[in-house]
Design brief:
2-keto-4-pentenoate hydratase/2-oxohepta-3-ene-1,7-dioic acid hydratase (Catechol pathway); seven-stranded mixed β-sheet; Fumarylacetoacetate hydrolase, domain 2; 20 strands; six-stranded antiparallel β-sheet; 7 helices; alpha+beta
Length: 306
């Protein structure tokens, strides 16, 4: 699994790929279709991005070591989450005007924010699970950012300095459970419904705030959503500033930026739910493709606790 929009004009890639080879987790840097094992070059890199996020000097030093280092095909690597155990996963809803209208909501004057738990997310490529209690599993193509430098009361003018990188997120939503209460928590926290990755791209490789990038969701040749990150109501900088008014952001926190129009529940004349056997792909220009096969929970043999 690899992104379509690699940059190959540099000695080392700015994309960081969360890979897994059997039980040996490591971080790799990607150039074109090849990946270099950063953890092997310097064990201080560790098994997820936390060490590189916490120590920019380490990131710079290991980048120098990639020059001339041996590589492996990106396609041979199984993705892992960019941050194994993020402290916070904060999601922004209702951030595209046309999506707000298709959902029947009023345009808010303050961002709709909710949180996801750790069990609700999984790496790109891992199955997205349709729960046994519902057949209304929906997709949401979203930009996600990884916080690099934490803080509280972060000014909007300085907010982009707090971003380590950007990745792709599919905010899989179980719509009937999302609508059960005014709080969206139930529909957004089913196990293995939020796919992340497989690449994290550093800000220097993208436009400021990752604005102006094509964002799309599809199943096969069926285009489900197609928009642009420039259409977000609240920008990355505004969102960071807003969240940090009430919460201290920590390095490694994840923030999802909301989805454009075209989600399944709003399709007419009939909703378009994800079905077992399909593969849903979310693509953001310059970052990559997050693909997830859809499986049914009952086919996984998951049993209720006794």
């Amino acid at each position: 699994m690899r992104a379509k929009h690699h940059r190959t004009d540099k000695d080392h890639a700015q994309e960081i790929y969360g890979g897994r080879d059997g039980e040996r987790h490591r971080r790799v840097a990607v150039t074109g279709d090849e990946a270099i094992n950063l953890t092997a070059l310097d064990p201080a890199v560790g098994n997820d991005l936390k060490a590189l996020i916490a120590a920019p000097a380490l990131a710079r030093s290991v980048a120098v070591k990639t020059r001339g280092a041996s590589s492996v095909p990106v396609a041979s690597i199984t993705p892992a989450l960019p941050v194994a155990d993020p402290g916070k996963i904060i999601c922004l809803g209702l951030n595209h005007t046309d999506h707000i209208k298709e959902g029947g909501y009023d345009i808010p004057d303050y961002p709709a924010l909710f949180m996801r738990g750790r069990n609700s997310i999984m790496a790109a490529g891992a199955p997205m699970v349709r729960p046994s209690c519902s057949d209304k599993l929906d997709y949401e193509a979203e930009l996600m950012l990884v916080i690099g430098k934490g803080g509280r009361h972060i000014p909007e003018a300085d907010a982009l300095d707090h971003v380590f990188g950007y990745t792709v997120f599919n905010d899989g939503s179980v719509r009937d459970y999302q609508r059960k209460t005014h709080q969206w928590t139930p529909g957004k926290n089913f196990d293995d419904t939020g796919a992340i990755g497989p690449f994290v791209v550093t800000p220097d490789e993208l436009p400021a705030g990752a604005s102006g990038l094509r964002i799309e969701s599809r199943v096969g040749t069926e285009i489900l959503q197609s928009s642009n990150t420039a259409n977000m109501i609240w920008s990355v900088a505004q969102t960071i500033a807003t969240i940090s008014e009430y919460a201290t952001l920590d390095a490694g926190d994840l923030i999802a930026m909301g989805t454009p129009p075209g989600v399944g529940h709003a399709k007419t004349p009939n909703p378009r739910w994800l079905l077992p056997g399909e593969i849903i792909e979310i693509e953001i220009e310059g970052i990559g493709i997050c693909a997830s096969p859809i499986v049914d929970e009952k086919d996984l043999g998951v049993k209720a606790a006794e």
